[in-house]
């Protein structure tokens, strides 16, 4: 039983991170109908910037928590600039082009960012400094540490904040309007370029937070880390119903749980025929199954059809 | 319809992956110097190929291999090597195999087409084995500095050599050490499903069982993963007293860290893939007490080890990660055979390579009839006060006697 509980906890922590990254995919898709494949790389850049900032600041002897806060703010700011830049350079000029064009520039941006990061930060794994307390807590036989508790808490706070922003503020209303019908929104006086830029910046800030949390959890940063994380988060977004904020959260947490329980029990259940190395396959298998039976994801796509 | 866009996106993603695979033959460093065989100077150019992952998770180890190879070639050029009465300048063609078996074969073909005289590589067993067929078909001698899987030299290729003990020897020593010296009764095994990780884990299991230990579970991961909590949790349920991981340090370090986070208080052991400074740096305090092995004697005990590591650090401004000294030796063994044969022609110097005797940085190098290093020693290490400390050297005949 304690092992089962531990797997659930593992899944929740992992899922919280997926959910945060998935929000970035889903926000952009909801508004532009575009999959921003460079989003995983933004997560990586956030982690890398935080790494550099915290290394510099730790040398000056500041307390770790303050270092973390500053690193978080610098990384979020850097990612927001990056997100804005990506949209402005790679997507906006193609907004009225065929759908395939911005998709390909998205992949291009992703490859460029990854290689730039490799040149800039080097190709090796970096140890991410331990800035958060790391005490262990026992919970009915299962163990969880402070970093993991903080990850779940932060993810919950960020998601609630985003929901409030989208459904309770003027900006949120503008975002929903653009999502529903960009031309009508423009006629109503909504500055759609501004709304889209802000969406990209918000998503990128979330990505920076996610990047730092992943790095703090594993204690490792690498220029390659964004690609598989991005792919998983994209899967989570699709699983929950892309374009739908609640769906992204649900998808993220579900995917985390599926992976954790799948990897933990598949060996025993299949009598050793399938091993835990099928962890990733599991996630994508679920994705395929969901897409076959519910092409629009679990919570469906709530954006109205565009003519 | 939105999900139509979605399926389009998926299709594009798939296509992009294919494109990425296709472009993987491109090299990271291509010194595209044309063959300077001008009659004016008497210097002829001998091309030596090298291949290791220069991108991806194991890039730091691959770069280390490239550095070791490059250093040997630059040393030889500075010294001035004469082969068959002619002055020779060596040129390095370094290719990125991305730890991918598929890419490795493309890279191997590329090196063959570039008419290299020999190849130093690859780093991983999973890439070395498929590439070795291509080198063998074209008669190009290949010395792997680090591929330890038994299969590599067991395929009957005349061109395949390695300057390191194989996993048959390594797994045996590790299993014996775990069961006997450490007294482990219940052992959990994990491997990364690569030719190296899987092979080493299998040999380890055989030896541990022969020495009276029980294998409680055998779990798997991949050489790209960073999250092992699920697998480790399931291992925790089996209550082992030692966890063995067949794989490399990008997985080993976070794995050990997560093991401690799960309050799984067991001994942790890896093969040569874990014996790097990076492992300690990335696992942090969790690395204390971890075990690893490395074929060969400790660098300090190697005939030219101290001098080599000082020169390496001065040249590349970073410590040796793992196999650089073995790469250095591999190049020099190849050059020694060429000198003996008086030719850099693969067909001519290959017989000399098979019976070479060379005092290298790592050991005295001679090959057996399969191309394996004769009398390869294995040393066990433990992390003590944040450093890999040698515990004991096992096996190894005259090679380790220095």
Protein model, in words:
The complex is a heterodimer of chains A (307) and B (402). Chain A is mainly alpha-helical and 307 residues long. Chain A has one domain. Helix content of chain A is 73%, strand content 4%. A two-stranded antiparallel sheet of chain A has the order 1-4. In chain A, strand 2 and strand 3 form a beta hairpin. Chain A is globular and about 60 Å long. Chain A starts with a helix and ends in a 14-residue tail after the last helix. The C terminus of chain B is likely disordered. Chain B is 42% helix and 20% strand. Chain B has a 6-stranded mixed beta sheet, sandwiched between helices. In chain B, strands 8-7-9-10 form a 4-stranded parallel beta sheet, with helices on one face. The longest helix of chain B is centred in the N-terminal third of the chain and has 21 residues.
Quick tags:
A: 307 residues; mainly alpha; two-stranded antiparallel sheet; 4 strands; disordered C terminus; B: 402 residues; alpha/beta; Rossmann fold; six-stranded mixed beta sheet; four-stranded parallel beta sheet; 13 helices
Query: What general form of chain B does the structure show?
Result: elongated
Tell me the CATH architecture of the largest domain in chain B: 3-Layer(aba) Sandwich
Most extensive chain-chain interface: A-B, 57 and 50 residues
* Mean of pLDDT of chain B: 86
Please give the domain count of chain B: 2
The H-and-E topology of chain B, N to C, reads as: HEHEEHEHEHEHEHEHEHEHEHHHEEEE
How many strand units of chain B?
Answer: 15
CATH C-level label of the largest domain in chain B: Alpha Beta
Distance between termini of chain A?
A: 53 Å
SS summary, helix count of chain A: 11
Rg of chain A to the nearest angstrom?
A: 19 Å
Helix content of chain A: over 70%
Brief account:
By secondary structure, chain A is mainly alpha-helical. Helices cover 73% and strands 4% of the residues of chain A.
């Amino acid at each position: 039983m304690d092992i089962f509980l531990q797997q659930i906890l593992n899944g929740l922590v992992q899922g919280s991170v997926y959910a945060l990254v998935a929000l970035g995919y889903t926000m952009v898709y909801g508004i532009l109908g575009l999959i921003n494949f460079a989003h995983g790389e933004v997560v990586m850049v956030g982690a890398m910037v935080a790494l550099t900032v915290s290394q510099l600041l730790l040398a000056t002897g500041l307390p770790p928590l303050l270092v973390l806060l500053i690193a978080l703010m610098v990384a979020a700011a850097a990612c927001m600039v990056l997100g804005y830049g990506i949209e402005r350079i790679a997507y906006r000029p193609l907004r009225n082009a065929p759908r395939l064009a911005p998709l390909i520039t998205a992949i291009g941006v992703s490859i460029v960012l990854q290689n730039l990061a490799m040149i800039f930060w080097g190709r090796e794994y970096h140890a991410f400094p331990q800035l958060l307390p790391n005490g262990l807590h026992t919970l009915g036989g299962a163990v969880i540490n402070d970093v993991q508790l903080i990850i779940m808490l932060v993810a919950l706070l960020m998601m609630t904040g985003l929901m409030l922003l989208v459904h309770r503020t003027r900006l949120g209303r503008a975002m929903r309007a653009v999502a529903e019908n960009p031309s009508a929104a423009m006629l109503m006086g909504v500055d759609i370029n501004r709304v889209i830029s802000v969406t990209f910046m918000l998503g990128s800030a979330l990505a920076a937070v996610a990047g730092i949390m992943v790095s703090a959890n594993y204690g490792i940063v690498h220029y390659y880390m964004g690609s598989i994380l991005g792919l998983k988060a994209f899967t989570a977004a699709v699983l929950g119903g892309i374009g739908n904020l609640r769906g992204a959260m649900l998808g993220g947490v579900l995917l985390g749980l599926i992976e954790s329980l799948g990897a933990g029990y598949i060996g025993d259940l299949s009598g050793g025929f399938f091993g835990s190395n099928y962890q990733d396959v599991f996630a994508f298998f679920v994705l395929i199954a969901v897409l076959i039976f519910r092409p629009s994801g679990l919570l469906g796509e709530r954006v109205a059809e565009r003519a | 319809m939105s999900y139509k866009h979605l399926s389009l996106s998926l299709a594009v993603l798939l296509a992009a992956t294919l494109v990425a695979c296709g472009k993987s033959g491109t090299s990271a460093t291509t010194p595209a110097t044309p063959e300077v065989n001008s009659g004016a100077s008497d210097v002829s150019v001998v091309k030596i190929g090298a291949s290791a992952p220069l991108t991806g998770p194991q890039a730091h180890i691959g770069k280390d291999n490239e550095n070791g190879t490059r250093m040997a070639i630059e040393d030889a050029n500075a010294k001035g090597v004469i082969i068959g009465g002619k002055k020779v300048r060596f040129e390095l063609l370094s290719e990125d195999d991305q730890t991918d078996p598929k890419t490795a074969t493309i890279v191997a073909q590329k090196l063959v087409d570039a008419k290299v005289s020999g190849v130093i590589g690859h780093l991983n067993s999973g890439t070395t084995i498929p590439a070795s067929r291509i080198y063998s078909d074209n008669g190009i001698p290949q010395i792997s500095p680090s591929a330890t899987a038994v299969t590599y030299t067991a395929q009957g290729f005349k061109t395949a050599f390695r300057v390191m003990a194989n996993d048959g020897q390594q797994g045996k020593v590790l299993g014996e050490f775990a069961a006997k010296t450490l007294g482990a009764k219940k052992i959990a095994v994990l491997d990364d499903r690569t030719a190296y990780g899987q092979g080493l884990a299998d040999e380890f299991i055989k030896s541990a069982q022969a020495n009276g230990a029980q294998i409680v579970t055998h779990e798997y991961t991949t050489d790209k993963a960073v999250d092992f909590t699920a697998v480790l949790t399931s291992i925790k349920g089996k209550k082992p007293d030692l966890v063995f991981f067949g794989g490399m340090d990008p997985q080993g370090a976070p794995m050990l860290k997560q093991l401690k986070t799960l309050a799984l208080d067991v001994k942790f052991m890896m093969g040569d893939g874990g014996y790097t400074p990076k492992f300690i740096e990335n696992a942090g305090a969790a690395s204390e007490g971890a075990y690893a092995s490395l074929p060969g004697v400790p660098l300090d005990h190697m005939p030219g080890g101290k001098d080599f590591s000082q020169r390496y650090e001065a040249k590349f401004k970073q410590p040796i990660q793992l196999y650089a000294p073995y790469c250095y030796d591999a190049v020099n063994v190849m050059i020694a055979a060429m000198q003996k044969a008086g030719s850099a022609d693969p067909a001519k110097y290959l017989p000399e390579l098979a019976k070479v005797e060379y005092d290298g940085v790592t050991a005295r190098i001679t090959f057996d009839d399969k191309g394996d290093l004769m009398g390869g020693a294995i040393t066990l290490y433990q992390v003590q006060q944040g450093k890999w400390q040698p515990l004991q050297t096992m096996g190894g005949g005259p090679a380790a006697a220095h």
